[in-house]
UniProtKB/TrEMBL annotation:
InterPro entries: DUF4062, NACHT-WD_repeat. It comes from the Eukaryota. This is DUF4062 domain-containing protein. Residues 74-170 form the DUF4062 domain. It holds the Pfam family DUF4062. It comes from Adineta steineri. Signal peptide: none annotated.
Length: 203
């Protein structure tokens, strides 16, 4: 006996709560029409390197700035962690979604670098956390089409990492002054830091 073909019921689009806040999507779903993709806005002339950035903030417009081709806003969010936990969470909840949506409308991508989730315990014990942060800041400056750094500052001092490396000349001057001032445990500092002759300059 041949199998009978069944006619499947026509599926109706379900408009959820999120779509109710987007009239363009809600209307499009009712008509089975997706909203049009936003047109890319023309790129603006924005400084693309440190030299041009310094010229910009010092008001030097004697030369034209190079053309920025990036369509990415990559922002490094910096603050002390414990006393800005609420503020950082609120920024993620209330501010960044609107910025990300606006960037998408203009054809840009929006990214946030937050080292609250990027620094491991190993990086802390190896004294490489500050290097990781500086590398990410450099990457944000290099890749971002504009704004690349947000700093929240309060009354609390952040943690100062012991440097992973110190130039030999600077280290010797530090030890000499420490001994002259009779600072305790100078021998421990000399024990913790070893001269790396393969580094140029030596550290």
């Amino acid at each position: 006996m041949a199998a009978k073909a069944k006619i499947l019921p026509k599926l109706k689009p379900i408009i959820g709560r999120k779509d109710e806040n987007r009239p363009d999507i809600a209307a499009g779903l009712k008509k089975n029409v997706l909203p049009k993709k936003p047109e890319l806005q023309p790129l603006k002339t924005i400084p693309t390197n440190k030299l041009e950035f310094n010229r910009l903030i010092t008001g030097d417009f004697t030369q034209d700035f190079s053309k920025q081709t990036s369509r990415l806003f990559r922002i490094f969010l910096s603050s002390t962690f414990s006393d800005f936990k609420v503020e950082r969470n609120e920024i993620y909840r209330r501010v960044f979604p609107s910025i990300r949506q606006r960037c998408a409308q203009l054809g840009y991508e929006f990214q946030v670098v937050d080292m609250r989730w990027g620094v491991s315990d190993t990086a802390d014990t190896d004294h490489t956390a500050d290097i990781m942060c500086m590398d990410e800041i450099e990457r944000c400056i290099e890749l971002s089409a504009g704004l690349n750094f947000i700093y929240l500052i309060g009354n609390r001092y952040g943690y100062m990492y012991v440097p992973l490396g110190i130039d030999q000349e600077e280290f010797e001057q530090f030890i000499a002054v420490a001994r002259e001032e009779k600072i305790a445990n100078v021998d421990l500092i000399e024990k913790w830091f070893q001269l790396d002759k393969n580094s140029v300059p030596s550290k």
